[in-house]
Design a protein that fits this description.
It contains 7 helices and 9 strands, in the order E-E-E-H-E-E-H-E-H-H-H-H-E-H-E-E. It is of the alpha/beta class. Strands 6-7-8-3-9 form a 5-stranded parallel beta sheet, sandwiched between helices. A 4-stranded antiparallel beta sheet has the order 2-1-4-5. Helix 7 links the parallel strand 7 and strand 8. The chain is elongated and about 80 Å long.
């Protein structure tokens, strides 16, 4: 079993699917430090262990701004295209691509023969080229934050085999019912959630820990 230890907190966190921890830091200076420790994947301050020390940066992801859940950055799209090619395209799709490639090259050859200047063009069109030409990307549902959040985490999970999700102030923007939906999906994705906040908002979590202004652990 994987466990996680954060310095200043007298508790060992079990890293298991669907477990949710609520960490409240009432001392803003320490909260700022902790946020940077998580962002930097500081293995001295955040200790992940399973038979040996593990790299927390490779096992976790930190969402610091839940209003910026961009599924379509260049890096994300490249990973999404690769995932589609690896797991969703079979022999039938490869035949379709070969036919598309042949038709396009035939068209370009014809244009090239009659054009006044010599033309050069790619003669081997890939699935990624097709995805780019058609602007294939993940869609958003701006009416549902929960749906967008879950899809964002799914995309992270597809492209990075994470086990831990840190989120800053998630509980401020969801209801108890929305929390239940998110928790259910995280369990399915085999992810453990840490909500990080500067103030306490009660939810039915596995463990709430509060560090007060004097850096004393309340619970």
């Amino acid at each position: 079993m994987k466990t996680l230890k954060i310095k200043r907190i007298d508790y060992v966190f079990r890293i298991e699917a669907g477990i949710v921890y609520n960490l409240v830091f009432e001392n803003p200076k320490y909260l700022y430090k902790l946020i940077n420790y998580i962002k930097e994947a500081n293995n001295d301050e955040i200790i992940l262990y399973q038979d040996k020390l593990l790299d927390v940066g490779k096992e976790s992801f930190f969402i610091t701004d839940i209003f910026d859940l961009n599924l379509n950055t260049k890096k994300s799209l490249t990973a999404t295209y690769k995932n589609i090619e690896n797991y969703y395209l079979g022999d039938e799709e490869k035949i379709i691509l070969a036919n598309i490639n042949s038709n396009i090259i035939t068209m370009l050859d014809k244009i090239s023969l009659s054009y006044d200047m010599k033309l050069e063009y790619n003669t081997n069109i890939s699935f990624s080229d097709i995805f780019n030409m058609t602007s294939l990307k993940c869609s958003y549902n701006k009416e549902s934050f929960v749906e967008d959040f879950i899809n964002y985490v799914k995309n992270i999970k597809i492209n990075n085999e994470i086990k831990i999700l840190f989120v800053l102030n998630l509980f401020d923007f969801i209801t108890s019912e929305e929390y239940k939906l998110i928790r259910k999906d995280l369990e399915y994705m085999n992810i453990c959630l840490f909500n990080i906040s500067g103030h306490h908002k009660p939810f039915d979590v596995d463990k709430t820990i509060i560090i007060d202004e004097d850096l004393c652990q309340i619970c």
